[in-house]
Design brief:
Number of helices of chain B: 12
Number of domains of chain B: 2
Radius of gyration of chain A: 25 Å
Strand content of chain B: under 5%
Order of helices and strands of chain B: HEEHHHHHHHHHHH
Strand order of the largest sheet of chain B: 1-2
Distance between the termini of chain B: 52 Å
Number of strands of chain A: 20
CATH class of the largest domain in chain B: Mainly Alpha
Helix content of chain B: over 70%
CATH topology of the largest domain in chain A: Rossmann fold
Oligomer: heterodimer
Number of strands of chain B: 2
CATH superfamily of the largest domain in chain B: MetI-like
Number of domains of chain A: 2
Strand order of the largest sheet of chain A: 6-7-8-3-9-10
Helix content of chain A: 10-25%
CATH class of the largest domain in chain A: Alpha Beta
Largest sheet of chain A: 6 strands, mixed
Radius of gyration of chain B: 26 Å
CATH architecture of the largest domain in chain A: 3-Layer(aba) Sandwich
Shape of chain B: globular
Order of helices and strands of chain A: HEEEHEEEHHHEHEHEEHHEEEEEEEEEE
CATH topology of the largest domain in chain B: MetI-like fold
Structural class of chain A: alpha+beta
Largest interface: A-B, 25 and 19 residues
């Protein structure tokens, strides 16, 4: 396995398709994951993200297409011959081996010398070297998770795959592990490919996120990119929440398009318009809205004539549902920082937002 | 004051008491069963083992003289059968292991939709009596049977050779009869192995053979230990196979005990032999479990 050391570079998927009977799990997927990056495959369950990961790991063979690391084609290489390691969803630690032997497993199989030192080092990295003589069953979920990570990282693979690694942990521990994982990735400099259905987890850790749906990639980009300028309704709703209002382009004003939104004229930056035609689905994130009393003078993009139908208090913020004259309910998040007028259910209100936060999708998309 | 105190204590402990009572209640049938069918006969056996023939020398009449030398005499007179028993049982256990492990592995990992059917096939022999099946083997392997005549026809066996009445046929019979006891525990422990552990092993640079050696086999050890015990223990006490498939030269300690009890009517010797057999097996089993180191795995 000496050549596995030399296999380095970007991970490339070329037209990868995987079918199970009639079901297309992964549909003609092409993707480049740059070396050293923290990449997240994000999507709902059944979208094909885990199948993609298993194909990269060598646990499934693609029905067609190619998988490469740098210039080396690994499409048909056996799992045990790939310079790829996985942190499994349930950790899959060997129950009959001590923590030390679990971590040393991959090194011993490759006949590497100085196992002791390498294992000790990686156990220090995850701060669990004092548990090395225990068995996995004696560890907590969070500790097992770290050992699973250590067992993979110790091999210094070209690629580290993480299959929903934090799914079984409670919220507080998950947050802590997100930060640790990111730190460890920076520390060891290995390419991480992280599969998750948790958008917050993906956004916290990844440099690049690919949002998957029905075996295809819907959109790929940095977390901020995907959030601020989603190109499909699916992405807009999977990463956070969005209000969509139907509108049509009526003119141009400098760098902005003038859009008629149910009778109100609003501005939409040209760069944030993903639609081809003149019929638009205009998107505004709930937290971008500002609430105003009906008689207040407001500038920017404004929608008036709303009535508050529901108020939910979340602590840091409050969620309002505002019914518009065209009977659509819009969602509004306001920070509880005193900047919002005292409002009650039934109060008439107007909504405003900064034009640069507007985005638009094709009117026919859904 | 004292009354009030005790009643409040009683209340506080009531749930705990109730659950202990339930536990005893549930255990009662089992304990009763053990007392009637195991403890009492065992005490009776122990008592008989140190008796000596009654002064009247009437058959079946013995008096208690606490003659512990009975044990030494019984062992000295039947050493050969003792060692043969353990040797045959060991051979049968190893053979059964060699057959059962691949079988259990195939059923657990490679049988697909046939799994349940194959498991039923493993247990199927139990639908007929142990004695009948052994008699069937006597027919099959007998001098006039199909196996011997075919082998003789093919000149593999000389014309005067037999298969029955040899150590081979006794060990074969033991292996055959106790094979399900070996297969089922091994199957159960293999079937319980999380498939993802095998994937993890592959992911960590272990090929198929190494994964078997380092992951599958160690994780199936509880089944192997259980299976070998369930085969070895009854095999070493068995007498049916030696009687039906062997000759007096192949008799095991079970045959001696049987004949001492029912033919010679020498109860003290039979009891002593039974005790020695029991003690030896117990010691062997304890050593075996210690060495297999499966305490924490089971």
């Amino acid at each position: 396995m000496a050549e596995s050391k030399k296999v380095q570079g970007d991970l490339v998927l070329e037209h990868v398709t995987k079918t199970f009977g009639d079901f297309v799990a992964v549909d003609d997927l092409s993707l480049v994951i740059p070396k050293g990056s923290f990449f997240a495959l994000l999507g709902p369950s059944g979208c094909g993200k885990t199948t993609t990961l298993r194909m990269i790991a060598g646990l499934e063979e693609p029905s067609s297409g190619k998988i490469k690391i740098g210039d080396t084609d690994i499409t048909t290489t056996k799992a045990y011959e790939r310079p790829v390691n996985t942190v499994f969803q349930n950790y899959a630690l060997f129950p009959h081996l001590t923590i030390f032997e679990n971590v040393a497993f991959g090194l011993r199989r490759r006949g590497i010398k100085d196992v002791e030192e390498a294992v000790e080092k990686v156990l220090n990295l995850v701060e669990l070297s004092h548990l090395k003589n225990r068995k996995p069953g004696q560890l907590s979920g969070g500790q097992q998770q770290r050992i699973a990570l250590a067992r993979a990282v110790v091999n210094r693979p070209a690629l580290l795959l993480l299959d929903e690694p934090l799914g079984a942990l409670d919220l507080k521990l998950r947050r802590q592990m997100q930060i640790e994982l990111k730190w460890i990735q920076t520390e060891v400099g290995i390419t991480f490919v992280h599969v998750t259905h948790d958008q917050e987890e993906a956004m916290t850790m990844a440099d690049t996120i690919a949002v998957m749906n029905n075996g295809k990639i819907e959109q790929m980009g940095s977390p901020a990119d995907l959030y601020e300028n989603p190109s499909t309704v699916f992405v807009a709703n999977f990463l956070g929440q969005s209000n969509f209002i139907e509108g049509s382009v009526t003119g141009t004003d400098g760098d902005n398009l003038v859009v008629d939104l149910k009778g109100s004229k609003i501005a939409l930056p040209k760069s944030r318009n993903n639609a081809k035609g003149n019929v638009l689905k205009v998107g505004i994130r709930p937290e971008k809205f500002r609430l105003h009393q009906a008689n207040e003078k407001v500038s920017g993009n404004v929608l008036s004539g709303g009535v508050i139908t529901d108020i939910s208090f979340f602590g840091v913020s409050t969620q309002y549902l505002v019914e518009m004259p065209w009977k659509q309910e819009l969602m509004v998040f306001e920070q509880n920082d005193g900047g919002v007028p005292e409002l009650e259910k039934g109060d008439p209100v107007a909504l405003s937002w900064e034009p640069q936060f507007t985005f638009a999708l094709d009117g026919n998309s859904n | 004051m004292a009354i009030a105190h005790s009643s409040s204590t009683e209340k506080a402990f009531a749930p705990a008491k109730k659950s202990t009572r339930t536990a005893y209640f549930l255990l009662a049938p089992g304990i009763l069963w053990l007392l009637v069918f195991f403890a009492f006969p065992l005490i009776n056996l122990a008592e008989t083992s140190t008796k000596t023939p009654a002064p009247t020398f009437e058959t079946g009449e013995f008096v208690q003289t606490f003659r512990f030398a009975n044990f030494f005499d019984a062992f000295a007179a039947n050493q050969e059968q003792f060692f043969r028993s353990f040797f045959y049982a060991l051979c049968a256990t190893l053979l059964a292991l060699a057959i059962a492990y691949p079988l259990a592995y195939a059923i657990a990992f490679r049988s697909g939709p046939w799994k349940n059917f194959l498991l039923v096939m493993v247990i199927a022999p139990f639908f007929t009596s142990f004695l009948l099946r052994t008699l069937a083997w006597k027919q099959i392997l007998g001098a006039e049977g199909p196996v011997v005549s075919t082998l003789q026809f093919l000149r593999i066996l000389p014309s005067d050779a037999t298969i029955t009445a040899t150590a081979f046929s006794v060990i074969m019979g033991l292996t055959y009869n106790f094979l399900p006891f070996m297969t089922l525990p091994i199957y159960a422990s293999l079937d319980r192995i999380d498939y993802r552990l095998l994937e993890a092993s592959g992911d960590l640079y272990a090929n198929g053979a190494t994964t078997f050696r380092k992951v599958t086999l160690p994780l199936s050890m509880p089944g192997v230990v259980a299976g070998t015990l369930l085969t070895f223990i009854p095999s070493s006490g068995d007498y049916i196979n030696a009687q039906l498939l062997g000759s007096p030269d192949n008799f095991m300690i079970g045959n001696v005990i049987n004949s001492r009890f029912f033919r010679v009517v020498d109860y003290p010797t039979a009891s002593s032999l039974s005790f020695i057999l029991m003690a030896t097996i117990l010691v062997l089993v304890v050593i075996y479990i210690r060495r297999a180191g499966t305490d924490e795995l089971v």
